[in-house]
Amino acid sequence: MPNTTNNMAGGRLNKNEADKKKRQGLRMFINGFSKDEIADILEVHIETVKRWANQFNWEDEKDVHSISIVELRKEVLQTFADMKEGKTPKLSADQLSKLAATFDKLSDNKKALSYMYQNFESLSNAILKDALSERAKKTKDYKLEVAKYVREVMDQLTSATYKEVFND
């Protein structure tokens, strides 16, 4: 039997379409969207989204992705500030050293890419939340289509940028 998933129209998605929607759903879940909102945006049945969330451990993925480079940088700087003020830092010297070394290993391009992606996610989430807040179905559907288009273009841009950065 082919690997397909039902969409809201009752049709079947092929494997590539289903995989793309799973990735989009995971990103939205990590960024705080509910499973109902994800189902609405991706136009798949809520039970499909719940199955994906369970099957691919979305809760664990959300926990892993909850710390950004900005937060890591902030934590390192806060630890230095605490030490400077004579306070006991939350991080040990060894932990701090490892975090600083990890951050240093990232090239400037990779850091810029990380910040770009965070801003992209923030913009994408704001557009989707605005669309979901609409009461008029026609306006909501229009805004969701715009959000999907923006997401598609931004995904292509991010993918191309990743290829450039990781080939440096």
List strands and helices in order, with pairings:
Blueprint: E1 5-6, E2 12-13, H1 15-30, H2 35-42, H3 46-55, H4 58-64, H5 69-84, H6 93-105, H7 108-133, H8 137-166
Antiparallel strand pairs: 1-2
Helix pairs in contact: 1-2, 2-3, 5-6, 7-8
Question: Could you explain the architecture of this structure?
Answer:
With 168 residues, this protein is mainly alpha-helical. It folds into 3 domains: 65 residues, no CATH class; 39 residues; 62 residues. The chain is 75% helix and 2% strand. It has a two-stranded antiparallel sheet. β1 and β2 form a beta hairpin. α1 packs antiparallel against α2, α2 crosses α3 and α5 crosses α6. It starts with a strand and ends with a helix. The relative contact order is 0.09.
List keywords for this structure.
single chain; two-stranded antiparallel sheet; 168 residues; mainly alpha; 3 domains; 2 strands
Helix content: over 70%
Q: First CA to last CA: what distance?
A: 42 Å
Give me the side-by-side strand order of the main sheet: 1-2
Our Rg estimate from Cα atoms comes to: 20 Å
Number of strands: 2
Instruction: List the domain count as a whole number.
Output: 3
What kind of sheet is the major sheet?
2 strands, antiparallel
Proportion in β-strands: under 5%
Task: Produce a short descriptive summary.
The chain is mostly helical.
